[in-house]
Amino acid sequence: MFSFIRFPINYHEYTGRENGVFVGPLDAGGTAIIETYAALSDDNFIAVGVDNSLNTCGPYCMPRLLTFSISYYQLDVYQKKIITAGTHSLIHSLTYLLTYSLTHSFS
Q: Quick check: 42 and 36 in contact, CB under 8 A?
């Protein structure tokens, strides 16, 4: 579905702004730090996918209970290193139901 950087980055690393918070023509908008980590290794990114192993009712099923989970390693008091991430869902074929639930889990 998407991926994100394994390591924490600060506002200045994300925007590419050395000083201040004002918008300028040289703003990277996240591109600079993404390219920096990509040049070092693809392992710096965590891919987030969907676990459809419980899908037993075919292509017309709808996810009703979604869980977004992130597993991490505590580096120190302030920083965590993300190890894995993914989504898990309970899927069924009752398409007339209009409710769903989204939860998140950190471990």
A: no
**Which amino acid, residue 90?**
L
Q: Is the pLDDT of residue 85 over 80?
A: yes
User: Would you kindly state where each structural domain of the chain is located, as residue ranges?
Assistant: 1-48, 49-107
Element spanning 66, H or E: strand 62-74
- Strand pairing category for 45-48 and 2-5: antiparallel
Alpha-carbon span 81 to 84, nearest angstrom? 10
Contact status, residue 14 vs residue 30, Cβ threshold 8 Å:
yes
Cα–Cα distance measured from residue 67 to residue 65, given in angstroms and rounded to the nearest whole number: 7
pLDDT at residue 76 is higher than 70: yes
25-64 pLDDT, tens per residue? 767 777 778 888 889 998 888 888 776 666 666 666 667 7
